[in-house]
Amino acid sequence: MATADRTTAQPPRKPRRFYEDLTFQVLAGMALGVAVGAFFPDIGKQLKPLGDVFVRLIQMVVGLIIFCTVTHGIASVRDLGKVGRIAVKAIVYFEVVTTFALVIGLVTINLLKPGVGMHIDPASFQTAGQNVHPAAHMTFGEFLLNLVPKSAVHAFSEGEILQILVFSVLFACGLASLGDKAKPVLETVDTISKALFWVIRIAMKIAPIAAFGAIAFTVAKFGLHSLVALGALIGEFYLTCLIFFVAVLAPIAWYSGFSLLKLMRYVREELALVIGTSSSESVFPQLTSKLTKLGVEESVVGLVLPTAYSFNHDGTCLYFAAVSVFLAQATGTALGWEAQLSLLAVLLVTSKGGAGVAGSAIAVLAMTLAATKAIPVGSIALILGVHRVLSSAFVFTNIAGNCVATIVVGQWEHAVDKERLHTELDNGFQPT
């Protein structure tokens, strides 16, 4: 029997040439985009739609993919107690890790002090700040109310990931309660999911073009000098992200029995893509597929990964902590440790429920600064020129952190095929 299996086994897949690798194509597109934006700025400014079209293609289906993934994963298990355990463990993990991220962000920015000495007059932002409209500070009651969509259609049409997740979990639990009667619906959901992933595979073919257009526009609009004008902040933030990887994510991965570096190599195409697009939403479908291929049960991936997109913003928390204190330093705003602890508490709330869309961090940052009632909201204008450079780092960190979280929670639930996990990580991702 074993002989027959070996006889019928398919031959090894021929390795792809380096230029066929999506990571290479995305990085090449970014390099070309920098060149076009720097030397042909008039052309570069016209290329923004290339990136926007790609992000919209992903946004077009990501809500439905979350619905299908969560519904099929939970309803297939039928054990609502297990669903509850997974959710509680995931939320606890997210809160602990994001708190570590905020503390690291605050400590590093206070030690390096990149904004001290800039002596920016807060009054100078009265005009500049008119284009930044901070949202009102959301109370805990409003946060709870915002979890439930006015209608399922509204959640999907507005792209509210957290609301889609809530609706999907409730719908999946309803299907699970029906037992075998729900099989036809589950088969339909699975079929729809496969069709949506086909759309994603087609969209991914233009990912290098999207990265090219996004970077070309950024360099053309703000100039190369914009990438280094606030070099101290950029260097501090990239160092902070590196410290988070070394001090938090790597030990968590090591303790859980897998290599963080191998995991990052496995999802390197997605990591490279978010550097160019600054949108974590653009890689959600691919991560769902890869994490399942790594041996994490579908029910865990279907619940933990979408939840992580709303609650586990490791990189974004680093960004909020660093930029908030930087702006206080730059404008001479007194911000003692008591005020910074209050800021940390605010960030633990405002960092939740983000949509993962490029640029959304600016709106949340404005809301955070408004909640502090100390740091001028208009001072956000200081970092607009380098926000794109910073967002590449924090979205990169978000994606890596979400992958680690999904595997760790899966292992807590004994829902990971460890042999398959190590085999896949050792061999690297091979497209099927």
UniProtKB/TrEMBL annotation:
GO terms for molecular function: fumarate transmembrane transporter activity; malate:proton symporter activity; succinate transmembrane transporter activity. It is a multi-pass membrane protein. It is found in: Cell membrane. The chain crosses the membrane at residues 22-41, 53-74, 86-109, 161-178, 198-217, 237-258, 317-337, 357-384. Keywords: Cell membrane, Membrane, Symport, Transmembrane, Transmembrane helix, Transport. GO terms for biological process: L-aspartate transmembrane transport. One of its GO terms (cellular component) is plasma membrane. The keyword Zinc does not apply. This is C4-dicarboxylate transporter DctA. It comes from Luteibacter yeojuensis.
